Each structure stands twice: as structure tokens, then as C-alpha cells.
Amino acid sequence: MTILGPRQSGKTTLARMTFPDMAYFSLEDPDVRAAAEADPRGFLGQIKNAGILDEIQRLPALLSYIQGIVDKDGRHGRFILTGSHQPRLHEAISQSLAGRTAVLTLWPFSLRELRHYKVVRSPFDLIVSGCFPRLHEEGLEPRRFYNGYLQTYVERDVRALVQLRDLSQFQKFLTLLAGRVGLVINLASLSNDVGVSTTTIRNWLSVLKASYVVFELPPFFENVRKRVIKSPKIFFTDVGLASFLLGIHTDEQAFRDPLRGNLYENLVVADIVKGALNRTSPKKFMNGTGKAGR
User: All domains of the chain, ordered by start, with CATH?
Assistant: First the structure.
């Protein structure tokens, strides 16, 4: 099984809580990664029964060895893999583990899951705080959480996927994108505002989508041709990050902000997608059919 999703969405926690008896290895740990890279067969050989390999995208070459082990013993559920970089991991899975692993996608908490904390929150409070598990579990201050989250994402994930010459331009792009949440994206307009080519904007947007920072909502038309050619709207996977980028740090600010309707729409649409993901697959919904579930 492979669990994908944005950073801090709870992939590791879910895997370790669901399979508490499995051996756990984090490939974020330099020592563990070095050992796995130096002797992949020996590293995997120490996992006698079953194991969790966290952040597998840090060493995608390991998947080829996992393929050999799975094909040899034919056991299901021997390895639980987690990863944050969708493009890198998907490419490796398609080459090595196609038909050998189930892929699950885990986003931050849904509104239904947040009810377990038994704290009544207004919609605008949720727009500011967002739905990342750690933020609610540990009672973190949203402003500090998202500041660290953004720095980690920009410094590690984005630079691992694209060559950023000017970090400030990408940060400007993120802020301008947050200002267009819930709208159809005009690449030419964004290009002029950021000061880079439309090709660069398109590439950056692809990286954000591939890394689960934003997602697109296709339009719904009875006419299939229109459904395919019409432009989608852009939303953030977690509305709290969009609010942080816009400088909104309190529920009062969110209530008075001109973009409050767009942010509220983001909160609702993202929760519908989470519901579809948690049930089975959002494929129909995200293809614009307006239907989610089985």
C-alpha cells in the first residue's frame, strides 16, 4: 500500500496507528537513507515480516528492489509506503510497482473529522486555522505553523522539483495565486504580475498541483466537449495556507476581507473532495461530473 498526500497531512501517523506492530523506517533520516542506498537488499532483508517505509520518494530506487521481493514471495501488505512528492513517487510506482500496490491519497482533516476535537469553530475561524492535523492536535498558532510550513515547502520540495533562480518571484507567485482562489486562472495576467513567462507560470502551477498545494476544479457542463475545453477554477488544498499568504490571521480579518466568499468556497469545495477521497475516489467529481463516491 502507498499513501500519498501533502506534507503534515497525517500519513505517517495513520500508517503507524493502523499498523503498530510493523517495523518503521524513515528515509528522511540520513543514516537510514544512507544504509538503504548503500545496501538496498540488506536493508530490505532486515524487514522479516512487514514494515513501513516513510518518505519513500527520498530514495525511489528502492522501489525496484521492493518489486523483486513482492514478486518473489507474493505476499500482500508486506510494505506500507508513504510519500509527499506525487510526481517523483508516481513515476517510480508506475515503473516498478504498477499493479502491485494500492494507492491512497490523504488530505488534511475534513470538517467531519474535526468534530472529534469537540471545539465549535466558526467557518471564518476554520478559514484561518485550516485543517492540518498537527495544528489542531497540538493547539498550534496558525501564523507560526504556516510560516514554517511555507518555508519548508519552498526550501525543500519546490527546489527539489524545479530550478528556482529567484525565490522571491515564486513567493510572489504564491501570494498572487492565493488572491485568485476560487477563480479561473489567467496565465497571461499572472505572468505579467509576477514578471516571468507564461511557460514558467504553467510549470510552477503544475508543481503546486503535483505537490498537493493546490488543485483544480473542472467546470460542469452537460456538453462533454465544453467540460473538457473550458478553464477550471483553482483552489488550495488547505484554505489556511491561502489565508496566511493573504495576510489573514484572525477570524475577524477573514470575515471582513473582500475575498471571504472565495475563501469560504475553498473551504467547502476542499471538504467535498476530502469526503470523496475518504470514501473511495474523487475521480468523477474532479472530472466535472458533479458526482463523488463509488
Answer: 2-105 (3.40.50.300), 111-286 (1.10.10.10)
